[in-house]
Amino acid sequence: MNLPVILIIAGAFLAFGLLVILLGGPSAGKAKSRRLAMVKDRHAASTEAVVAAQMRKTIQAGGLGGSSSLANLMPRREEMEKRLRRTGKGWTLTQYMFATMGLFVVVTGGLLVVRAPFTMAAMIGLFLSLGLPYLVVSRAIKKRVTKFNARFPDAIDLLVRGLRSGLPVTETFQVVSQELPGPVGEEFKGVVERIRIGNTMEAALQESAEMLGTPEFQFFCITIQIQRETGGNLAETLSNLSDVLRKRAQMKLKIRAMSSEAKASAYIVGALPFFVFGVVWSMNPSYLAGFFYEPRLIITGLGGLVWMSIGAGIMAKMISFEI
Fold it and tell me: How many CA atoms lie within 13 A of 284 on its CB side?
């Protein structure tokens, strides 16, 4: 029995095991604890207990899509769940892990079918299965944050017009969530919902700031907090903040245009060795086969990768500017 057949059988057994774990049903202990909590919430008399019960129900409803025995096996699970929520796509941790394992099986099996060495196939499959989903999530987060920053000054201008017309701050948040589509409306809608279930405005805004992870929204939160503590004309302060954010975005675009040539050079120089390696491998595999079993060539290849990584890091630092 050749190696690709063994890999396919192993992947089938792995998929069957994962289905058994996922469809095995909830834990009896967790179900008992959940029933006791429901009974306790049903007989709660105080307002704080009712608010706490509502928050527990909201958290449980939001976590049903990603809670499973498979997701519990992942290290740093809370950080990864936060990254998936920041994408705004509704992806769950279980789907992320299935995509990672499925990509490993497909890439490794495909390379073995074309008679690639097992070590090379396993290394490339592991690298792509770990790196590609992470890059996809990072790209989705960056895309959403970019959309948010592009429309955020418009949201602040809308807040300023609402405050100058006499509306309270919470009502202007509601107007922004209804008038502006996309990530800006979603985040302000989340702030309004958290305020309605009993959170303070500062806590609701800070939760959105931690989820977005952008300095722009953090500036906004600090402005609101300082104004509520010291007083003053909030509309004028937010108007100045909107002007600062627009100028900051313009400066970022200028830096991006000035560093585009250096980035293009880095991409070309970084991709050229791998491109040449792939071309030579497709034409004469035996010429480069020593990189996978000869110790001196393996050390040389790893040293070249480390040296290229250092150069890429230095170039990234050279074109990275704090605004």
Answer: 5
